[in-house]
Amino acid sequence: MLDNAWINGISVLLINLGSGYATRDVQVILQKVFEYKLMKWLVYFTICFTATKNIYISLCISFLIVIFFWHFLNEKSDFNIISEHSRLMLFLKEIETNL
Fold it and tell me: Cystine design at 21: which of 11, 12, 16, 57 (Cβ 3.0–4.6 Å)?
C-alpha cells in the first residue's frame, strides 16, 4: 500500500489543494469543503503520510497537530494556553514582573 503510485499521487494532490496552490476556481469550492474540520484534518494527515509513508505515525502526528492547534492554541477553546487569562500566561506575567 505504501508503494502504491495511486495513493502517492492522490496524497500529493490533496496537499496541493489544501495548501492553496490550486487555481482560483477550485479555491472557491475548497473554502466550502474546508469548513468541515474533518477535511482540514485530512490535509494534515495527508502531509504527514506523504512525508513518513507510515500510516500509524501519520495518524499520531495529525491527531497531535489537531489537539495542539484546535484546542491549545485556539482562542475560543477552554484549554487555550495563550490567552490573556490562561494560567500559563498569568504565570509568565508574574515571573516577568518579579524580574
Answer: 16
73 DSSP 8-state letter:
S
Residue matched to cell numbers 496552490: 21
Q: What is the pLDDT of residues 9-35, one digit of tens each?
A: 677 767 766 665 555 566 677 778 878
Angle between helices 5-18 and 24-33 (to 10 degrees): 90
CA atoms within 13 A on the CB side of 60: 6
Sequence-ordered list of residues with C-beta below 8 angstroms from that of 77, at least 6 positions apart, any chain: 70, 71
- Model-wide pTM > 0.85: no
- Give yes or no for a contact between 48 and 63, defined as CB atoms under 8 angstroms apart: no
Closest-CA residue to 15 (of 30, 35, 37, 36): 30
Q: Hey, what's the cell of 73?
A: 492554541
